[in-house]
Amino acid sequence: MKIEKFTNNDFAKAAPLAAGAWGDFYADERQWFIDAVAEYILRYNYSNPLLALKAVGDDGVIHGVLFANFHDDKADVSQWRENIESQMTDHELERFRLLADYMLEVDGKTVQCMSDGEVKLSLFISNQKGCGKLLLQEMMDEFLHRDLRHLYLWTDTSCTHEYYPQHGFTLVGQFLSEVYDSYAPGYTTYIYKKGISSESK
């Protein structure tokens, strides 16, 4: 397993990885839509190429990605999104925009908690045992090299958010999603923070 920088050429190769992580949420949709959602999640979170890694197996397949960014980093996905939305049905467009609006909502609330010298894990996916740990070790080394103080991330009720308090993260905020309120009432998002040190690797 090799850890390398993620580049603009990797979106199509990493899309099956993201589709595997979120595909169940859209299992009743056509595969094209699932792939489009997967690629959008990758493109939206890829806002700082210097803080983007991939884990590549001996077979050349991407088995993990880890993206991070600062509070003022933003990916320009407007043109790609406009193109992909033009190919969607009304139903697909509604589901897609719900997800896109939700990510904007929670990222906005997360970066409000952050300041200079702090960083956010924006996307972390792996489908092979061990590669997630390798990605995280490499990224933590980069954070230490940059003298960053705190690491932030958000998660929600669709994930095992209980993991984070048990691994040194402090809950700094939680809120009910306004975007998802009519779709899934009570859908809660959690924002966590952890100090960056050589011991936290």
3D structure, described in words:
This is N-acetyltransferase domain-containing protein. InterPro entries: Acyl_CoA_acyltransferase (IPR016181). The protein has 201 residues and is of the alpha+beta class. It has a single domain (2-200), classed as Aminopeptidase (3-Layer(aba) Sandwich). The protein is built from 5 helices and 7 strands.
Concise overview:
The chain has 201 residues and is an alpha+beta fold. The chain is built from 5 helices and 7 strands; from the N terminus they run βααββααβαβββ.
List keywords for this structure.
201 residues, alpha+beta, Aminopeptidase, 24% strand
Number of helices: 5
**How many domains make up the coordinates?**
1
The CATH fourth-level homologous superfamily = Gcn5-related N-acetyltransferase (GNAT)
CA distance, first residue to last residue: 19 Å
Helix content: 25-40%
Unreliable stretches (pLDDT < 50, length at least 5) are none
Main CATH class: Alpha Beta
Let me know the largest β-sheet: 7 strands, mixed
Q: How large is the share of residues in beta strands? A: 15-25%
Order of helices and strands: EHHEEHHEHEEE
Q: Record the strand order, biggest sheet.
A: 1-2-3-4-5-7-6
Rg of Cα set: 17 Å
**CATH fold descriptor:** Aminopeptidase
What is the typical, i.e. mean, pLDDT? 92
User: Which overall shape is indicated by the principal axes computed on the Cα atoms?
Assistant: globular
The tally of strands reads 7
Q: What is the CATH architecture term?
A: 3-Layer(aba) Sandwich
Structural class: alpha+beta
